[in-house]
Design brief:
alpha/beta, Rossmann fold, 5-stranded parallel beta sheet, 10 helices
């Protein structure tokens, strides 16, 4: 297909063919990271800006490596030492940086919609690296890539997404991605952390982790979004761990073989035990590895679409 979008802002706006096209391009890029010289000249001469207004380890590092492996130049924007701390708006910040002839902004912001605002204000490509509680599209794409790598398909796969669904941009992007590609998705968590009306997105809802993980292929655990919770949604971390934390000892009698996924960072001892994170059925580090190939694909498609 002919990719025509200059921006990647969310999976809600993409169709199945576009998502699969990104995954196919990512598959061709994964081999680059196994070479002695981990570079291709696909974006030589292009400049990518990491415009991160929130802390990040995996996403920011992954995007930087992806850009460099495509031979692009990378500028890492530091909020604490920028004019944002003096009151400059994010739009003015983006426009001023664009005036230096950059080609792409990778935007992470605590406010939902911030990447959309920037995308309407600049001609450069804009990639959403996580906005508030809205979406985190490249995380979902690397998760889809990882599942397809393991099973050879997405259609028919059963996945249980467990934890803080209400505040999770990862959950929202994964719900859009997995349902559009034909997977069966169940979300599970305390009633206070399940968004009202989420069934309209095509998922099933469970309030019991033991019920949710029966017969599934993937157990996807989410981090408690403590920094976004403005009130108490459950009595205590210990109670959350007892009812919704994943420990293999709880589920060792399950007959179905499943794989474990987590977007990171993990709260070990709360939503996941160390033993579970280190088990042979854990795909957590494979997700991190695949993030580079997926972000290479997204950068390649969006930046090349800008005229």
């Amino acid at each position: 297909m002919n990719w025509k979008r200059k921006d990647l802002l969310g999976l809600e706006e993409l169709n199945r063919e576009e998502i699969e096209y990104i995954l196919d391009i990512a598959r061709s890029f994964k081999e680059v990271s196994t070479r002695p010289v981990k570079k291709v000249p696909a974006l030589r001469g292009k400049t990518i800006v990491n415009l991160f207004f929130e802390p990040s380890t995996r996403t920011k590092t992954s995007f930087e490596l992806a850009a460099k492996r495509l031979s692009a130049d990378v500028l890492n924007f530091e909020v604490s030492t920028s004019s944002v701390s003096k009151g400059e708006t994010i739009v003015d910040t983006a426009r001023n940086i664009e005036a230096m002839k950059v080609d792409c902004f990778i935007v992470r912001h605590s406010v939902s919609g911030a990447p959309y605002l920037i995308s309407r204000s600049v001609k450069a490509a804009v990639i959403n690296a996580g906005d508030g509680c809205h979406e985190h599209p490249t995380q979902a794409l690397l998760d889809l890539f990882t599942v397809r790598e393991i099973f050879g398909k997405i259609a028919g796969i059963k996945i249980a997404i467990i934890g803080d669904i209400f505040h999770s941009r990862v959950a929202r992007s994964n719900i859009w991605g997995f349902t559009k590609l034909g997977a069966k998705v169940t979300v599970c968590g305390p009633p206070t952390l399940i968004p009202p009306g989420i069934q309209k997105t095509g998922v099933e809802v469970s309030y019991s982790i033991s019920e949710a993980v029966k017969d599934v292929d993937i157990v996807y655990l989410l981090r408690l979004q403590k920094e976004r919770q403005q009130e108490n949604f459950f009595p205590s971390h210990s109670e959350y761990r007892n009812f919704f934390g994943f420990d293999h000892n709880k589920f060792r009698d399950l007959k179905n073989k499943f794989f474990l996924m987590h977007p990171g960072p993990m709260n070990r001892g709360i939503e996941i035990s160390t033993q579970a994170a280190e088990k042979e059925n854990s795909l957590i580090l494979q997700q991190v590895t695949n993030g580079i190939a997926v972000r290479m694909a997204v950068l390649y498609l969006t930046v090349r679409s800008v005229r």
